[in-house]
């Protein structure tokens, strides 16, 4: 699917910019097709065949997209690895993916005998340097038979224990995402947007086909920053703002926001985490454009949202209604629908839902209801207008700046600190990040009390930055239930009531 689409996109959009690197050089649609052909030939020469896994441990650089397209052209499966993960976390993802080949920059490359076949990628300085050491110049990718059931992408998300799980998608699911998102139309081109998240995330991996159909230009940054996002939006006349609510909040808090000429922006679309009504209203007012929200989960690929033409209230109080082709259900503990207006477990079903978790049949079985809906892990209710209103998560996971954080994973690391006798992590609301973690610690008797900076430094080598606690409470004991288990509900209440 992706191989065919890039060929047609090259025919339609030719030399128009597809991706603009952080350094300013451009990869056109013609370049994408040609370079991915040559890289596909190079993958073949290295022994990569259909159904092999190619892992991309790369930042948001054009090489990622070229390699993804090239792998699809030979029938291989791309596993994206978020460059922001710590080395142990990246190693955990690669262990699950079990790739035939790993493409990684020097600073992200895995080491040791378990690393397997690794190709070191030096970020290019011009289009024709992209993956120069892997390409077979002048060759055209062989045509492989179309197979809707051929796996194409593995997108990683953490489980409730923090263990990485890879949701895998076939051609038919990517086609369904594209059909639901943009239909079968080809865009006129000309749209311009900034890539705000890792290419290993759900959106870039599942919506590349739709983006190719639109013919727009995506501008890349090595590390997203709010002031730079505003500058690039103004300089390059971006037509849309997309990302997570935290990014939007940070842009609005740039001190000299008003000096940027943002008149080119026509719409804002946000997802990946909760947005407060105040944030939605402020964004609409200061950018002066309509705003839409999207809600899904990695396993479902696509789900619920508001339209830019919907009443303003919809994006303020809800995450919208099911998109065309998506069935939303709110279920009780026995997987029975709850009456409208009552809170239950949010589930999504569509032709786009994942095939399962890569190499994990037990987790796959637990992720689906009997009728094939995916359990999102969120709680919510449907109002009288058919809008989904979220109330929280059924597990302890929270979302900091669009990134899922699982307390047990963080606790397992902090518990190894020599000053920590016991620890629990709970979230508190934050105006910018949505939620941040608070480490509640019982110190070892007779020893010095731990301090926040010390705990963060201790854990930073094993956890991604978004998982580190941002506040600390030292207590005499953690609250327990009657079953001698940690009472997280009571702990949350204690933290919420305690002074900062």
What does it look like?
This protein has 500 residues and is of the alpha/beta class. The chain folds into two domains: 379 residues, ANL, N-terminal domain (Rossmann fold); 100 residues, GMP Synthetase, Chain A, domain 3. It is 29% helix and 24% strand. The chain contains 14 helices and 25 strands. The strands form six sheets. The chain has a seven-stranded mixed beta sheet, sandwiched between helices. α1 packs across α3.
DSSP strand count: 25
Kindly state the percentage of residues in helix.
25-40%
Main beta sheet strand tally, sense and closure: 7 strands, mixed
The radius of gyration computed from the alpha-carbon positions, rounded to a whole number of angstroms, is 23 Å
CATH architecture classification of the largest domain: 3-Layer(aba) Sandwich
Strand order of the largest sheet: 6-5-3-4-7-8-18
Which helices and strands appear, and what pairs or packs with what?
Layout: H1 2-13, E1 17-20, E2 26-28, H2 29-45, E3 53-57, H3 62-73, E4 77-80, H4 87-97, E5 101-104, E6 118-120, E7 151-158, E8 164-170, H5 171-181, E9 192-194, H6 202-214, E10 217-219, H7 226-235, E11 240-243, H8 245-252, E12 267-270, H9 277-287, E13 291-295, E14 304-305, H10 312-317, E15 321-322, E16 327-331, E17 344-349, E18 356-357, H11 361-367, E19 374-382, E20 388-393, E21 398-400, E22 403-405, H12 407-414, E23 420-430, E24 434-443, H13 452-459, E25 471-475, H14 488-497
Helix pairs in contact: 1-2, 1-3, 1-6, 2-3, 5-6, 7-8, 8-9
